[in-house]
UniProtKB/TrEMBL annotation:
It holds the Pfam family DUF3886. It comes from the Bacteria. Residues 68-78 have a biased composition (Low complexity). Residues 53-64 have a biased composition (Basic and acidic residues). It comes from Metabacillus niabensis. Residues 53-78 are annotated as: Disordered. InterPro entries: DUF3886. This is Trehalose/maltose hydrolase-like predicted phosphorylase.
Length: 78
């Protein structure tokens, strides 16, 4: 008898979405979509800020820093 009871439970697996009505499901999907878009926008803004900071640091480098980063050698131009 226990096997029959267990088999009936397996056939009747219930998920959370079975309890939610369609309107609520759609609202949750929209919220998820909005949050995903918002997260992508934040990541894009962060990347833009990083690029801007990198440009600013490059712009404010001293002559010594630029010279040390250069691959040119004065010996090549003798």
């Amino acid at each position: 008898m226990k096997k029959n009871a267990k088999k009936k439970q397996d056939d009747q697996t219930v998920s959370v979405s079975d309890y939610l009505n369609e309107d609520l499901k759609e609202k949750l999907k929209m919220v998820k979509k909005d949050l995903t878009i918002e997260q992508q926008e934040k990541e894009a803004e962060l990347e833009r800020k990083k690029i801007e900071e990198r440009k600013q640091r490059e712009k404010n480098k001293s002559f010594e820093e630029l010279l040390s980063e250069s691959s040119l050698s004065w010996k090549d131009f003798k």
